[in-house]
Amino acid sequence: MQISNEDYLQYKPLLFSIGYRMLGSIVEAEDIIHEVFLKAYQMDEQVMENKKAYLCKMMTNRCLDVIKSARYKREQYVGPWNPEPLVLETSDEFNPSEYVLQNEGLSIAYLRMMEHLSPDERAVLLLREVLDFSYLEIANIIEKKEENCRKIFSRAKQKIAQVENESLNYEKNKSIIHRFIEAFQTQNTAALLELLSEHVTLYSDGGGKVKAAVRPVISGSNVLALLYGIVKKAPKGFYFEIKNVNGQPAIVNYVNGTLHSIISFYIGNDSIYEMYITLNPDKLTYYGKK
Q: Which residues of 106-144 are buried (b: 16+ CB within 10 A; e: fewer)?
């Protein structure tokens, strides 16, 4: 049962689904997939009785290693950290939509919440809730007892309870974003504040590479002041489109045909609870041109 090129094509979507959700990074997920398959190609076929289980175990454990070793690096990150946006509408050569099994657990809000979990909690929650692995399969992957995995899952669910209120109705959310844009363009502050929750928070991720708010911006008036300021300083050639990003509608901004930033939303109960502006050019490398 040696690994073949057909196995690569068959299992890459599953491994990408694990890696991207665990790390919030397309680049790191792709790198680890290559590592895993390179190692798997060299393995003795006797070792790999179940290819899917073995590849998932290798992928998950490698992601856990990366998470644990990246803690210091993440603590030194300048400003808020947003997951790398996954644009699912693109004409670029690399099209991540080919590698994503389903949209569950894919939103920016969900991936940001994953950051509050321990590495094991992140792995168990993902494998169980999103990818529907059995507790026995999860126990074999992370090398813990089945009962321990159940407890870890329960803890993880409690920690991310907040994101359970997120609306994943694409068309409804798209309508809310259209209303937000229309009110913003007409500077209808009253309409904007109606769309924003009382404690709306904006996370601006420039990574120290470009100008961005280094702390979360809280409250509708402060968020709108920041957005008005950004638009006022927008360079010539600036325009935007609404595209499918992480399975949800998002505002994708361009300057002269080159991707400038992406604004994603956490919407629940017909209100915008959080906004995520990703400006860090390192997180936009896959979509540089329209």
A: bbbbbbbbbeebebbbbbbbbbbbbbebebebbbbbbeb
